[in-house]
Design a protein that fits this description.
The protein is an alpha+beta fold and 313 residues long. The chain has 13 helices and 11 strands. The protein has 2 domains: 138 residues, D-Maltodextrin-Binding Protein, domain 2, CATH 3.40.190; 155 residues, Dipeptide-binding Protein, Domain 3 (Dipeptide-binding Protein, domain 3), CATH 3.10.105. Keywords: Cell membrane, Membrane, Signal, Transport.
Length: 313
Amino acid sequence: MFNLNWKRLGLAAGLSLSIVAAGCGSSDGGSSDSGSSNGDSAEGGESKAAIGEELDYTITGIDAGAGVVKTSEKAVEEYGLENWEVQTSSGGAMTEALGNAIEDEEPIIVTGWTPHWKFAKYDLKYLEDPKGVFGGEEQIKTMVKTGLKEEKPNLYKILDQFKWSSEEMGKVMLARKDGTPIEEAAKNWVKENSDKVSEWTKGTEKVDGTKAKLVYVSWDSEIASTNVIGEVLRQQGFEVKLTQLQNAAMWQAVAEGEADGMVAAWLPGTHGDLYESNKDSLEDLGANLEGAKIGLVVPKYMDISSIEDLKSE
């Protein structure tokens, strides 16, 4: 059983992340041209100061433990945004605020990441980060507990062979966003992508009730990926348990051997500190998805292009 203390902490983060809903936030949303290059004005000719005042100098974030929030707070400091602060909430609250602002064509700045369904639903852009605070593209990696290869070789091999794209993940995310229960969305994807699933299970044998315990953080992408691989494991005969936790508790669960693994490690930036703290107690199986990204995100109609544009005159 999972340690009750950290499990209790983990359950407190029931987002939508909101890696909840769905949609594909692939590299489509990560780049875009828009707005003036000097960022001196907002939509309608507003000054940079007016944007700050209208937003009460607030960047809308997600849960306080998230790497994108920590990095956003660092960006506020590095760029000298003295009046600005990152307001933490949840993935669901963030996307609701984003949707409301876009409906009224109002300014908003949110902590963002891809893959995420919001880039498929809305016309968004990342603010340029000339100081490189948010780093470049990231990988989503698979981590397993030490000794899993010897203990459960078939589980180890499937997790090691699990790799897919932002577009593939996005179909599951979008189905959930549109109201399909995640378990059903995962089953549908697995059924419709038998060739891909065969790549993951190649060289393995079906088992009879071997337990597979996976943990994940409640982000839309990780809900999608964990449920898909969980469905594949069920079809291979595993007794699967998926447990939602907060970031630190997720890493701790794998490092302490309470969980067999996770497919939700964002590196090198988002979970970098947690990786450094736990890397000697787990095994890194490499990337299951390439091209992930984090940063500050705004609607394209906002006439700013860089984090530096948020600095007061």
